[in-house]
Predict the structure of Cystathionine gamma-lyase.
Amino acid sequence: MTGDGTRVVRAGLPEPAAHEPALPGPVFAAHFHLPGEAAGPYTYGRDNNPTWTRLEAAIGELESPDEPAHTVAFASGMAAITAVLFSQLRAGDAVVLPGDGYQLLPAVRTRLESYGIEVRTARPSTDDRASTSVPHAPVDRGHDARPDVLDGARLLWIETPSNPGLDVYDIRRLADAAHARGALVAVDNTLATPLGQRPLDLGADFSVASGTKALTGHGDVLMGYVSTRDPALADGVRLWRKTVGAIPGPMESWLAHRSLATLALRVRQQAEGAMALATALADRREVTGVRHPGLPSDPSHALAVRQMRPGRFGCVVSFVLPDRAHAERFLTALTLVDDATSFGGVRSTAERRARWGGDDVPEGFIRFSVGVEDPEDLIADVLRALDAAKA
């Protein structure tokens, strides 16, 4: 068995061939030579591409190193998310979405409901001692008040750690509960990456992620993927991709594959920096609500230690400043951190998350993504900016 650092360097590469590159360049082709019957691995550019094949094999090795898995790459994370939802759900089905998930999920809810799909929104318990039966404590937004939101559901969607709240949910516990009721389970693994958490090993049917974030890590590629060990589920997702044309470009796929080689290095450096930053922020009086799963004081820490890989609790730290103006002064004063959305890149970014209007967070809520800068330099910049923001 090889370690993650070795695996990411070799994942998805073809067998060495004399005078050929280790990672062949992107294949740009709308069509392929196709004599005779319309069959073969590569027939038309919307169906498949050799560059996707290598990337998908690589991601499959990371998401499921010990068992065969099928991975389908997409043009974006949202393309991957919607492929799972719309390939599996039909009119009359019910789906359970997280109440604290990605901000576009409410828009997805509206679309699902327009197709006659019942959408229930619930916030699972983060208490690792909670009952194994069901996710509970539905979000108080006028949605489901039922005590058992899984009854009759076709699919349960879990996002852990959640974005931007950074709650960690017990995948194994929730997957067992969903499967006992005949529901499939999909886990958004974007923040953790497959080096931080393997949902398929924990009982999930799908592991879904936006490769735009930490997986590719350079802020220059839009990418998404779905991994599953069930070939029939993979076929359904792949057919959805073909039908709607949500295909990744060959250049983006090649860049994504190239970037995987440094994933272990980036994940380790970013996790160490995030932990150091969260610790430093905890000592600031004007900073409240510091969240990072690696902090021993974090309400999700005990579960994160059990479920996530040691020391790989993600690159994101969230915290709250007194108000909108204070948060804006802080962001303006930073010199080593870009005021930008997204997370997981090699350059640190931070933003006042409420500016988007889709998250249930205070006006002064900051989502901070730690890059690969030296932690000492980054923390010094943050502390200096906090001092400047007091004015």
Notes: The longest strand covers residues 70-74. Confidence is low (pLDDT under 50) at residues 128-147. Residues 301 and 352 are 24 Å apart (CA to CA).
